[in-house]
Description:
Elements lengths: L1 H10 L6 H13 L11 H19 L2 H6 L1 H26 L5 H11 L4 H8 L6 H30 L6 H37 L3 H21 L4 H12 L4 H4 L2 H43 L8 H5 L1
Helix pairs in contact: 1-2, 2-13, 3-10, 3-11, 3-13, 5-6, 5-8, 6-8, 8-9, 9-10, 9-11, 10-11, 10-13
Amino acid sequence: MVSLSGVVTRVLPFQVPLPLMQIAIGALLAWPTFGLHVEFDPELFLVLFIPPLLFADGWKTPTREFIEHGREILGLALALVVVTVVGIGFLIYWIVPGIPLIPAFALAAVLSPTDAVALSGIVGEGRIPKKIMGILQGEALMNDASGLVSLKFAVAVAMGTMVFTVGGATVEFLKVAIGGVLAGFVVSWSYGRSMRFLSRWGGDEPATQIVLLFLLPFASYLIAEHIGVSGILAAVAAGMTITRSGVMRTAPLAMRLRANSTWAMLEFVFNGMVFLLLGLQLPDILSSSLVAAEADPTLRPGCCLPTLS
């Protein structure tokens, strides 16, 4: 279906972003006429698909441009997420009767960070100026930390275990962000040392090296989450440092060629599967939202917007 969606977008007389086509195909397959239903486990989805895709985005991100636009990226990753959390939180509080304000902020914190995978998939390459695209991609990669901190504080305040302070939020943000980046860097550095050891004692076997490279984003993500920092930033940091550490430059040519082609294929397939799975969940989400709206006449028509988001 991932390959079919690419063919359909090319034969249509008008231009449709590939991710939107994949969502539409998934929704069509899940419609009662076809009846395809896939159980959706959010935690499994997050572990299986997000780390390799963000690792690939970090791999492709130019370090020089990222540092050059660091001020704009951090400004968007901090200020924009906070403003969005406050704005969406009040909107949810208004359109969903009965939900307290602090839990509304918690839900807004989940919705507010820009999805780097969706951004790169929908916008594509060459459609907007390179500088703006670089800033948007950098912000999408970095805003996870501010979103996680907002969610953590909102949940803690709602449960009565914490009193919100600007200083506490700042410290928590630095812990989540810097800790995630350091975790990704350490795991990437360990991978580089392992590759040098394998090359010295086991020879240059491309298959083994590519398998270990494929496991790198998962290791970065899981280790970071285990120690309480951002696994998403760890996967991004691992991708950004792997090519700058010299490991890929010193790797055999056969390994580099196979690694590039393998990751290009995996990125295409995983991106497509993400949007297909989202489309497969769409009919159930719509039907449950409509049923809830009919059962409770006090719900406003906009109450399904947070669910769809």
